[in-house]
Amino acid sequence: MANEHDESLEAAQHPQVMPDDDTSEHDFEAIRDEVEAINLDGWLAEDEAEGIVLRYLRRRQQVLTEITRIEEQTQAMIRTLKSKLDGLDYVYEGTAQAWTANKIAGTKKKSHKTPFATLGFRAQPPRLVVDDDEKVIAWAEREGKKDLVRIKKEVAKTALNEYVEGTGEVPVGCSVAPAGNKFYIK
């Protein structure tokens, strides 16, 4: 009996705070609270802390790997579905347009409802299509129509950093963030 009591006492004193198996079945909040309580009690030995951190990092990496895998699979599935949609449109859109035009011919309607979608035509005004930006810009500058060309102004941050490092002067609108350490997990 004393042996069973000693084992249960030891288990209570050294709980497993980061399970090695699939943690999706575990309550992470309870685990976090347990780790914080252990740390607050101040009796977490360096070996135990290292073990917790290493299990945490291993599990974190597993989750990140799974996220990446799922994102890649999802993107591949979306590309496949978009390709199928493009194929369907390529084969059937012309037929759908002709059928819709026939359905609404002689009526004031501009669309036709089906159980799956509404097909129709929207009036579009003529629009200007810019085929070559460089030619348009050259033409506008040559003709003195500079208001037809936008120039985007932005700070050249590399040059500004070099200026500040070289002169020590911090321009108006800037501030220097103090150096420090930023925690990261890679």
Describe this structure in words.
- The protein has 186 residues and is mainly alpha-helical.
- It is built from 5 helices and 2 strands; from the N terminus they run αααββαα.
- It has a domain at 131-170.
- A hairpin with a 4-residue loop joins strand 1 (111-113) and strand 2.
- Residues 1-20 have low confidence and may be disordered.
Secondary structure layout:
Blueprint: H1 2-13, H2 28-41, H3 46-104, E1 111-113, E2 118-120, H4 133-142, H5 157-167
Antiparallel strand pairs: 1-2
- Net shape: flat
Strand content: under 5%
Low-confidence stretches: 1-20
Quick one: biggest sheet? 2 strands, antiparallel
State the helix count.
Answer: 5
**Sheet/helix structural class:** mainly alpha
Assembly form of the protein: single chain
Helical percentage = 55-70%
Instruction: Give the radius of gyration.
Output: 33 Å
Give the integer mean of the pLDDT values. 81
Written as H for each helix and E for each strand, in order along the chain, the element string is HHHEEHH
- Spatial strand sequence of the major β-sheet: 1-2
Distance between the termini: 48 Å
User: Would you count the extended β strands for me?
Assistant: 2
